[in-house]
Design brief:
Elements (H helix, E strand, L loop, with lengths): L1 H6 L6 H4 L10 H14 L2 H12 L6 H12 L22 H4 L6 H7 L5 H14 L5 H9 L5 H14 L2 H7 L1 H4 L4 H14 L4 H11 L2 H12 L4 H15 L8 H11 L2 H12 L16
Helix pairs in contact: 3-4, 3-5, 4-5, 5-8, 8-10, 9-10, 10-13, 13-14, 13-15, 14-15, 15-17, 16-17, 16-18
Length: 293
């Protein structure tokens, strides 16, 4: 019945929209269609209900809670296809001032950010950033700086915090994470720092390349490839020379080549061509060996 109501009406099933309190024991397909119907309604009331009655409800199935927060993350940028059926059905533009989560749902969001399910917390953080819930900035900031939280959650919270905080707040507090003992968190903090202090970029990335672990070096190369200017080109050029001399760890070879290709420039292109020409001609997988590490 739920499929008939929802699927044949492209999600505009009044019966599903007006359900007052979904029961966690209901079948997953029905719960997914309730989320889809509330999402398509576009009303702030239904946004709040998604957060309070489903997203923050620990009795709800995990995948439905995550789905609800993912829907809220797409609230102001809905896809042209239905979240449940995949059918084409573009939605109208929504007004941030009137159509999103209200203060009524803030306590539910705060409770979710303390949840023991990382998947739910990470999805909720995406929703907080997308909904621009500035009132929750301190809560999100604390989560990013809490050492006992999972690394993935701290990184997600860091990304959310950078969307909500002022540049002054970031400049004052983000350097603490640049000194973190967790390489992945330190790398993420560096990426965000570069956005607000681009003049520090090349020096920070050079340090990461010199002393970071593999994941940190790979992230630094991605950032470096997107940087304009002679300084970033020179740093990439230096590392291409190291590659030619066999002094680059195999795990980051492909990242270095891609960074140089992304950056562009005649000097880098020339060095890339020489590296290609130096590959063994009798090895059928020579062109792809960097991908096999």
């Amino acid at each position: 019945a739920a499929r008939a109501l929802y699927d044949e009406s492209t999600g505009r099933a009044t019966t599903l929209i007006t359900i007052e309190t979904p029961d966690p024991s209901w079948p997953l397909p029905l719960l997914r269609r309730i989320v889809g119907a509330w999402f398509r309604s576009g009303m702030s009331l239904d946004a709040d209900r998604l957060a309070i009655e489903i997203g923050a409800n620990r009795k709800m199935p995990l995948e439905i809670r995550v789905f609800a927060w993912q829907a809220l993350a797409q609230w102001f940028d809905p896809p042209p296809v239905d979240l449940v059926t995949g059918k084409w059905g573009p939605l109208g533009e929504r007004d941030r001032q009137f159509d999103g989560l209200t203060e009524v749902a803030h306590d539910a969001v705060r409770a979710t950010l303390k949840d023991q399910q990382p998947a739910v917390v990470d999805a909720a953080l995406m929703a907080v950033a997308a909904q621009r819930l500035a009132a929750l900035t301190p809560t999100v900031r604390d989560l990013a700086f809490t050492e006992s939280s999972p690394v993935t959650t701290r990184i997600a919270a860091l990304g959310c915090w950078t969307e909500l905080a002022t540049e002054e707040e970031l400049a004052a507090q983000l350097p603490e994470l640049l000194e973190s003992d967790v390489p992945r968190l330190r790398s993420a903090a560096r990426t965000f720092w570069i956005k607000i202090r681009p003049e520090d970029a090349v020096q920070l990335l050079a340090e990461a390349l010199a002393s970071g672990d593999v994941a940190e070096q790979q992230a630094a190369l991605r950032d470096l490839g997107r940087l304009d200017g002679e300084a970033s080109e020179q740093l990439l050029s230096t590392w291409l020379d190291r590659l030619a001399a066999g002094r680059v760890r195999p795990e980051i070879t492909l990242d270095l080549i891609e960074a140089a290709e992304t950056h562009g420039g005649e000097s880098l292109q020339s060095k890339l061509e020489r590296l290609t020409a130096a590959r063994p001609t009798d090895d059928p997988v020579a062109m792809y060996r960097d991908c096999l590490v």
